[in-house]
């Protein structure tokens, strides 16, 4: 009886091992049926999720409140990038401290800078340095369609079996962008012309201003890595007083210290300036909220600007 019990136990163990192995292989196969995609900013992850649908597994390295200009990859990020089938990042030096990593990854797997798919003539140069390009292209919804095309092409190349799905989803996403673009133009027209001035901590809204008819002023340059001083604060204060601008805006991914200095400077000159609200610039909102999607983030920014400047 003892021998029979031992033999039964061994057989049962072998059967459980075989089942476990089978399940693991099945799980691995299911996971392999999905493309593993890693992105830097959430704005790009939103495109991949919507275009890829059920055929992709997406992870964004940079969550809410993260400043991509200053972001340094962790060991965990390197591991995620290494395990990905495809990598999508913005480019145009938005993720400036990660450029070397992307160069190495490009030698190993498909790695795409979606903003660099946009024709040069559509890009904006820095007003201070014409050799520097503004990377914040997602703030013109019509321009962001070029990024969608890059994501679509990358997914189709990696997974041609689902080409029609990716094309259909990309068309739907671009139709949403067209609606957002029209909404932005329509809403900005409700602001008195002399009040269409957007003042923020750094110069992230150049494309937004050009697309929707706003003059844009930022205390810092295109990158939050740039320095600003008392002279910059004073210069912006003078503009606020001269133009009688009533509201300025803070950004979700940047300290409000610099904007508060501008508000205080205007107050000392007898001009009251309010904080018009928080805008999403380099990062989107929390996942699971409307602002955690590109569409929700974009509408939030439009509605916040309009309600404060109207």
What's the quick description here?
The protein folds into two domains: 31-185, Nitrogenase molybdenum iron protein domain (Rossmann fold, 3-Layer(aba) Sandwich); 190-309, Nitrogenase molybdenum iron protein domain (Rossmann fold, 3-Layer(aba) Sandwich), CATH 3.40.50. 48% of the residues lie in helices and 13% in strands. It contains ten helices and eight strands.
Explain what the structure shows.
- The structure is a single chain.
- This protein is of the alpha/beta class.
- It has two domains: 31-185, 3-Layer(aba) Sandwich (Rossmann fold), CATH 3.40.50.1980; 190-309, 3-Layer(aba) Sandwich (Rossmann fold).
- 48% of the residues lie in helices and 13% in strands.
- The chain is built from ten helices and eight strands.
- The chain has helices at 2-33, 42-52, 75-83, 99-106, 144-158, 163-188, 206-212, 230-243, 257-268, 294-309, and strands at residues 35-39, 56-60, 86-89, 111-113, 197-202, 215-220, 247-251, 274-279.
- The strands form three sheets. The chain has a four-stranded parallel β-sheet with strand order 2-1-3-4, with helices on both faces.
- α6 (163-188) packs parallel to α10.
- Mean pLDDT is 88; it is low at 1-31.
